Each structure stands twice: as structure tokens, then as C-alpha cells.
Amino acid sequence: MKVISQNTAFDGMQGVYAHESDACKCEMTFAVFVPPQAISEPRPVLWYLSGLTCTHANVMEKGEYRRLASELGLIIVCPDTSPRGNDVPDELTNWQMGKGAGFYLDATEKPWAEHYQMYSYITEELPSLISQHFRADMTRQGIFGHSMGGHGAMTIALKNPDRFKSCSAFAPIVQPSTADWSAPALEKYLGADRSTWRPYDACALVEDGARFPEFLIDQGKADSFLDNGLRPWLFEEATKGTDIGLRLRMHDRYDHSYYFISTFMDDHLKWHAERLR
Ligand SMILES: N[C@@H](CCC(=O)N[C@@H](CS)C(=O)NCC(=O)O)C(=O)O
After folding, report:
1. Which atom of ligand 1 is nearest to the CA of 257?
2. Which residues' Cβ are closer than 6 Å to ligand 1?
3. H or E segment and range at residue 182
4. Which residues are catalytic, by number?
5. Whose CA is nearest to atom 14 of ligand 1?
6. 188-202 burial code (b ≥16 CB/10 A, e <16)
7. Which residues of this protein are catalytic (predicted)?
8. pLDDT of residue 180
């Protein structure tokens, strides 16, 4: 693992690191904030998965998580959203596919499958690296994210309920298999057989019996992607009649940006800290 940068912040350390990824077959960059309490004891790990077009840097620069993460003693891990590098296939004019749009899935179709293994990267390879290099209590992990990353967090929690104790999302896409901006990507990554998409669709996972105790979702009503992409009410419908708890908060005037995310960041950190105690 290579250190790209380390800066003291709120008595903790904001670092950026790079490593050769076996899963994605390229160099991957990620950010980790380590709170001051980790000097003396292992601390819980909270994963933040970013949305389309992002790298590890968007939330690190605009998410405003450090003050409270330092107080609560949370390690915050912010991975990249896709494989990177000249060898990695991409669609240069399509921001919803390829680099910056890995959808946290393991692709099976050519030419994507060779590098686009983001599900394995996030759930297997990176956790193992984090546990080796940081004072992380891997028995206490939570996961959250934004948009495509909110969807990634929810699907990963639903598939790994024993590993994660908490999950939340900002403006998540909840049913990517039926939204115009994500269905084409699922088809290219996973092929035309839609049954293979279901493990990467939060609503379909719940319909198919996956369970997670509870979710917090914040959504801005002025989000331009709300009606044709995100549609959190579909997850509300999918969870109705199940034992899944859903706290869905709709906010007047807020859009899809990091101004919205940073406004509600503290609420999410507290939500996770309470469940990772
Ligand atoms: N590039 C798209 C917008 C993509 C977008 O809004 N991405 C969200 C995640 S889905 C984001 O977090 N963007 C980066 C940022 O705001 O820093 C457009 O021009 O319409």
C-alpha cells in the first residue's frame, strides 16, 4: 500500500492511499479518516460509497464528516467508484457507464468483466487491506453512500447482514434495473438475462427474501434525479409488510449535491455510531 497523502484533521488523520488491486487488476486509490481514539484502541469502520462520476475525493473534500467522526471515534473509508487506468474499458461520452460508474457489481460480460469487479473489491479485498493497515474493529462495520453508492451500500448490507450492523443512504437509487439511467449499464455489465441483475437491485433483493434490520434514507425533493431515477418510494413499497425498518425522510428544497449530503452528514454518522457501539 502506497501513501499518497496524510494530513492531520480534528486530531485524527485524513489519508489517501493506493494499492495494486487483484480484484480490479489495476491500481486503486481510496481515502481513510482515522479518528484520534484509534491510537489506543481498535475503532468501528464506516464505509462510504460515492455516486456516479465520483472518486474517493468528492466526499473527502465536500462531505464534512471529519469533525463528528473524530468525536465519535469512527474510521471512515471512502473507496473509488470504479477501476481506473488506460487498460480499463470506458465509454468516454457516457457518465453512467465505465469509469466512475462501477455500480459496485462484479461484471460478467466482455469487455467489462476483467476489471469491473467492484463488489468483490469492496466486500473482500479492501476490507482485508483495511484490517491489516489500520486499527479497525472489523466486528463493528457500517455502510452508507450516495446515489449509485447509496444503492451499493443498501445492496451490500442486504447481502451481508452478518457483517454490517448499520446502513444508511443519501438519495439512493433503489431499483436500478428499471431506471433509464442505470438499466443500460446493468445490461452491459451483466448481460441481457435480467435474473442476474436481481442481486444488484435493492428492491429485487427484498422481494427475493434478503433482510437487513433497518435503513435511514434522506432524500431531497428538489433532486433532479428523483422521479426518473432514484424513486425511494419503491423501496418503501418493497419493505412494506416485512420486518425491515425504514426511516425515509423527504426534505423540501434540497437537491442531489454535496450541499445536501453535508447538511445531513451528522445525522448519518450518529445513526451509525449508535448501532456500532
Ligand atoms: N455529471 C452529471 C452529474 C453527476 C452527479 O450528479 N453525480 C453525483 C453522484 S450521482 C455526484 O456526487 N457528483 C459529484 C459531486 O457533486 O461532487 C451531470 O452532469 O448531470
Report:
1. 16
2. 51-54, 58, 62, 95, 146-148, 256-258
3. none
4. 147, 223, 256
5. 54
6. bbbbeeeeebebbbb
7. 147 (charge relay system), 223 (charge relay system), 256 (charge relay system)
8. 86
Between CA 90 and CA 31 the distance in angstroms is 23
Distance from the CA of 137 to the center of ligand 1, in angstroms? 32
The list of the chain residues with pLDDT below 70 reads none
Of 221, 231, 223, 220, the residue nearest 179 (C-alpha): 231
Cell of 175: 431499483
- Separation CA 224–CA 206 (nearest Å): 26
Question: How many angstroms separate the alpha carbon of residue 231 from the centre of ligand 1?
Answer: 17
SS3 4: strand
CA distance 177 to 192: 11
Residue 7 sits in a domain whose CATH number is: 3.40.50.1820
Nearest CA to ligand 1 atom 11: 51
Ligand 1 centre distance from Cα of residue 145 (Å)? 13
Tally the domains of the chain. Answer: 1
**CA dist., res. 276 & res. 139, Å (int):** 9
* Structural domain that includes position 71: 2-276
Q: What is the CA radius of gyration of the chain?
A: 17
